[in-house]
Amino acid sequence: MIDGRAMQESLLMNVDAESAVLSDAPRREARAAAPARRALLMCAPDYFGVDYIINPWMENQIGQAALPRAKAQWENLRGKLAAHSDIAFVAPTPGLPDMVFTANAGLAIGDTAVVSRFNAKERRPEERLFCEWFEAQGYSIAPWPENVPFEGAGDALLDHARDIVWCGYGWRSGEAAPKHLEKIFGRRAVALRLVDPRFYHLDTCFCPLSGGWLMYYPDAFDIASREAIRAIAPAEKRIEVGEKDALAFACNAVEVAGRVFLNACSDDLRSRLTDAGFTPVVTPLSEFMKAGGAAKCLTLQLPGAASAVTPQG
Ligand code: ARG
Predict the structure, then answer these.
(1) Ligand 1 pocket member 54 (CB < 6 A)
(2) HSE (CB half, 13 Å, CA atoms) of 215?
(3) Which of 48, 55, 121 to mutate to test the pocket of ligand 1 (most atoms within 8 A of CB)?
(4) What pTM was estimated for this model as a whole?
(5) What is the pLDDT of residues 170-210, one digit of tens each?
(6) In this structure, are residues 144 and 218 in contact, taking their beta carbons and an 8 Å threshold?
(7) How far away, in angstroms, is 172 Cα from ligand 1 center?
(8) Which domains, and CATH codes, for the chain?
(9) What sign for the dihedral angle of Cα 219, 221, 107, 239?
């Protein structure tokens, strides 16, 4: 069994007014393009907090995240995701307040995983723990060069429709990371330079969706990268969000089976997602925003059937 708490799901879904309002089944197009279930890795926020500053969101936030509220928000997200995906857990560890952001564990495709080489020295102790988790699940760990920072699926997003990996660099992951990923995983890595420090990981401003759709905030990228995005994704598949949605981390979304789980969503973005065939599901994550993360950062997409994954923690 993947999720020991699965019993709570129907209850959680029922009492959640927001998801009740937004729970219209996704339209046929997105449903057809979206994989029915996803396998995700999460880490409970037992030791979450803002204890240091490694991105602009954390400034003036040390000690400000309310742990009980963070736990409730995380549990709400987990419950919503668990209705549509199989969730595995890595054990939280005292002294590692950002470990809850499992997107930064690494990148796993097929039976191979690359473990992050954190740029942020505060997060380096997480590497060994994520490595052990991947090893325990039977992934083969690809060697990664010591001198190339890489912060996992925070900066490397799979685009299932195109079979490519979109890679962000400039703040946390190094410019050389995409080439190494390309070699390891044998699929094209498109390198995008991030230029706004508030959007320091690719997943804070860019989200590939089913059916070739892309939701992203163009101003987070340099001009060449914006052009690269436009050359690959046609206009009719691009959902370009404005600064307000971007600052509410709307692009830091997790899509499962046509549902798009996100911290916040303007009416305009909501109708654009709906027109594209998706169902936005708002799941507030204010406490994690204080650390510079939201829905997507709290999950790592795992390949294949999650039934092969053993829960921990
Ligand atoms: N405080 C964390 C850090 O700066 C937040 C990580 C958010 N993760 C993400 N995938 N964007 O590393």
Answers:
(1) yes
(2) 29
(3) 55
(4) 0.88
(5) 999 999 999 999 999 999 999 999 999 999 999 999 999 99
(6) no
(7) 10
(8) 37-301 (3.75.10.10)
(9) positive
Q: Is the CB of 290 under 6 A from ligand 1?
A: no
Which amino acid is located at 206 in the chain? F
Q: Does residue 293's CB lie within 6 angstroms of at least one atom of ligand 1?
A: yes
Q: List residues bridging with 216 in a β-sheet.
A: 206, 240
Residue having the nearest C-alpha atom to atom 7 of ligand 1: 293
Say how many Å lie between the CA of residue 99 and the centre of ligand 1. 9
